Amino acid sequence: MPNNSLSNTQIPMSTIQHKQEPHTELVHSPLSASSSSGSSSGKSIRRGENDSDKKGRVFPGHCSAPSKASIVAADLAMKDILKQLVTRVRNFKCPSELEFSLDGGSPMMLPNVEKNESFIDQLRKLQSLTNKLDEIPTHGDAQLKDLHDKVGKSIEAALLRMKEVQLKLYVTFLNSAYNDLADKIRNCHKNFVCPRELDFPENSKGGLVLSNTKRNKPFIDHLLTLGSFREQLGNIPEYDNEQLNDKREAIGQAIGGILHGMKTRQLELYNRQNTKARPFIRPCPKL
After folding, report:
1. What is the pLDDT of residues 223-275, one digit of tens each?
2. Pairing label, strands 209-211, 109-111
3. What is the distance of C-alpha 59 from the center of its chain?
4. Measured between alpha carbons, how far is 3 from 258 in angstroms, rounded to an integer?
5. Phi/psi at 209 (nearest 5 deg)?
6. Using one digit for the tens of pLDDT, what is the confidence trace for 147-203?
7. How many angstroms separate the CA atoms of 187 and 68, rounded?
8. How far is Cα 197 from Cα 265, in angstroms, rounded to an integer?
9. Which end of the chain is more exposed for a tag (fewer CB within 10 A), N or C?
């Protein structure tokens, strides 16, 4: 029994604590990713055909029918909004990457960070066009109603394309998160050198408990690091995508395989120490 034993340490595999990420304001896309829920924290697209019609209705004893000038003004205003829409869509340079939150929230929630600024700004501009359109009355005119509907649908189509791009970039973001984690696990285990001996206390529970000694520190630290990798994997949101699900499962199996191999090595070293024999010691598991 080595004299440098300080205390006995049983290695926990799932109690690693991480620093909490700083709070970041999230911006909700105008079109919710889960419209079936019937509610959303973001502002939904609603073309105010009924509201705008009220502005053009004529009630007995009130004002006269809208003038031709009013109808022409409404027509020009709607066409101006359509022109603004075309210009904004044409001039928008979509980013190749977006940053998302890993707190398990909706992929339609974007953190208000620099990388997302241009995308969020475009969403807000498109939503503002909807708001302006809702303020234009149709005066009960059939042609204005038809134009109002066409412009509103054009804005909705632009927002829908933004939503599709956002979801596509969300998959890219998660894919990168899985790849980064896999690289960290691979490099960490590649650089780990398995010790030829470990220190065990008298009551080691069959070799499951390690003494907290200098000799054991690299082995214990590696176990703790692998446990933290398992938590990082759990913190990556799951998403209904076959490729992402396959990566998640593969990384989980890799971590589990390494931990199982290290436990096996630990027990072999314990048995070797107890029997004073030198049986074959299998090498540390490889990825």
Report:
1. 999 999 999 999 999 999 999 999 999 999 999 999 999 999 999 999 988 77
2. unpaired
3. 53
4. 30
5. -110, 135
6. 999 999 999 999 999 999 999 999 999 999 999 999 999 999 999 998 899 999 888
7. 74
8. 10
9. N
Quick one: tokens of 23?
């709070």
What is the amino acid identity at position 89? V
95 CB burial (10 A radius; 0-12, 13-18, 19+): middle
In contact, 10 and 208? CB cutoff 8 Å: yes
Q: Do the bridges between strand 8-10 and strand 26-28 make them parallel or antiparallel, or are there none, so unpaired?
A: unpaired
The Cα 146–Cα 143 span in angstroms is 5
Q: What residues are paired with 26 via a beta bridge?
A: 111
Helix 49-56 and helix 142-190: axis angle, to 10°? 150
Evaluate if pTM is beyond 0.90.
Answer: no
Query: Hey, what are 121's tokens?
Result: 């700004």
Burial 55-78 (b: 16+ CB within 10 A, else e): bbeeeeeeeeebeeebbeebbebb
Cβ-based neighbours of 40, under 8 Å, separated by 6 or more: 28, 32, 34
In whole angstroms, give the CA distance from residue 9 to residue 195.
Answer: 17
The DSSP 8-state label assigned to residue 74 in this structure reads H
Nearest-angstrom CA–CA distance, 229 and 42: 34
Q: Confirm if 223 and 13 have CB atoms less than 8 A apart.
A: yes
Cβ(181)–Cβ(233) under 8 Å? yes
Q: Which amino acid is at 223?
A: L
Continuous segment of H or E residues that includes residue 161: helix 142-190
- Residues 6+ positions from 224 with CB-CB distance below 8 Å: 11, 16
